[in-house]
Design goal:
It contains five helices and no strands. With 152 residues, it is mainly alpha-helical. The chain has one domain.
């Protein structure tokens, strides 16, 4: 019993239609999963934004930072006026406050998804000040060698 041309064409069409139906079904499932992941990510981002605003509100209530800085986006400065130069020197000598440590720990906890403990923190000069390229490169190498996900 051999296959004639008509049987071969029917089998080929059925196999092709089956592949097409499977690929369309998988594509629909993939799109549904991607949209579900996107909705979950957006809701998580909304929760984190609410928590961040609550923390900023608490810090602003205590008078540590002005309310305008708590909500405003970071601004990029091109040139430092002479009137703010004493402020920059004061910031270098300033220690990291416990409130800042709490905010840093909350941000790292939100990023990593597990509770963290900050052992030490210190203020670092801004990159536009006299920081050599060698020290920046060394810091980058040290940070890249510490992969927290590799230890889990």
């Amino acid at each position: 019993m051999g296959l004639d041309t008509a049987d071969f064409i029917v089998i080929t069409v059925l196999v092709g239609a089956g592949c097409l139906v499977c690929s369309v079904g998988l594509w629909v499932l993939l799109r549904q999963a991607a949209s579900a992941q996107q909705r979950a990510m957006e809701s998580r981002l909304d929760e984190l934004a609410g928590a961040l605003k609550a923390l900023e509100g608490k810090i602003a209530e205590r008078g540590k930072i002005p309310e305008s800085q708590a909500v405003a986006a970071p601004e990029v400065e091109v040139e430092t006026p002479a009137s703010t130069a004493p402020q920059m020197v004061q910031m270098e000598n300033e220690e990291v406050t416990p409130e800042m440590l709490v905010v840093i720990a909350a941000a790292v906890t939100a990023f990593l998804g597990k509770k963290v403990r900050i052992r030490s923190a210190k203020m670092v000069r801004l990159p536009r000040e006299a920081v050599s390229a060698w020290s920046q490169h060394g810091r980058a190498l040290v940070h890249s060698s510490h992969d927290p996900r590799a230890r889990s």
